[in-house]
Amino acid sequence: GQQLNQSPQSMFIQEGEDVSMNCTSSSIFNTWLWYKQDPGEGPVLLIALYKAGELTSNGRLTAQFGITRKDSFLNISASIPSDVGIYFCAGGFYDKVIFGPGTSLSVIP
Amino acid sequence: DARVTQTPRHKVTEMGQEVTMRCQPILGHNTVFWYRQTMMQGLELLAYFRNRAPLDDSGMPKDRFSAEMPDATLATLKIQPSEPRDSAVYFCASGFGQGVISEYFGPGTRLTVT
After folding, report:
1. Taking CB atoms and an 8 Å limit, are A31 and B43 in contact across chains?
2. Which chain B residues touch A42 with a CB distance below 8 Å?
3. Contact A96 B93 (CB under 8 A)
4. Based on CB atoms within 10 Å of each CB, which residue in A9, B31, B74, B83 is the most buried?
5. Is A91 near chain B, with CB under 8 Å?
6. DSSP one-letter code for B25
7. Would the CA dihedral through B88, A81, B103, A8 be positive or negative?
8. Which residues of chain A make contact with B23, given a CB cutoff of 8 A?
9. Which of A73, A98, A63, A48 is nearest to B96 (CA)?
């Protein structure tokens, strides 16, 4: 069935550095979503992408919907300690949505 | 500050018991989702409703799970009988529109079945 891969699985960065993570699949999607989850809480929607090639920003976050519709990336610029958490991508195709396994981000002050 | 609420936040029960989890979506949202999160399987969509009608429950084990939306302010997820493998965090989320975007997640119900 459909499956999403996220890389890297985890990353440790210095405060102030830029971060890049991506999400790939062998299947096409017509929506890509990025969420952040803090421990003990529900995911928070960061960015939603609706068409191939779309590039969308939300503050220091930028995400793109891949041209092939099989991938998406998320960039975080000038990381800060509160960026720590698990970042999930999700692909939507009509009435289905699947989530990736997540990228765990740690920020070293 | 509108938010999705879920009750209970924690539930410990014995195998074979019935478990009911409740969710109050954000007022005005027309789509309600139920998810399950485990370390092994990650975040999985179990079922969702639009305008209170069930749209997709293909992710839900039908023999023991049931989801309902008796009114626009309440969604329920029931497990009967519960099994240890049902131990997980169950999230409710809501959104507005025609797609599968969960705009706001609740805090989750952590279920432990012994």
Report:
1. no
2. 4, 91, 93, 105-108
3. no
4. B31
5. no
6. P
7. negative
8. none
9. A48
Please name the residue of chain A whose CA is at the shortest distance from the CA of residue B48.
A95
Task: Tell me whether A39 touches chain B (CB under 8 Å).
Answer: no
Contact at CB, A45 and B4, closer than 8 angstroms: no
CA trace torsion A66, A105, B3, B48 (10° rounding): 50
Q: Which residue has the tokens 């209970």?
A: B8
Contacts (Cβ under 8 Å, ≥6 apart) of B106? A42, B3, B4, B5, B6, B23, B91, B92, B93
Q: What pLDDT tens digit does each residue of chain A (109 aa) get?
A: 678 999 999 999 999 999 999 999 999 999 999 999 999 999 999 999 999 999 999 999 999 999 999 999 999 999 999 999 999 999 999 888 999 999 999 999 8
C-alpha dihedral, B61 to B64 to B68 to B70, nearest 10°: 180
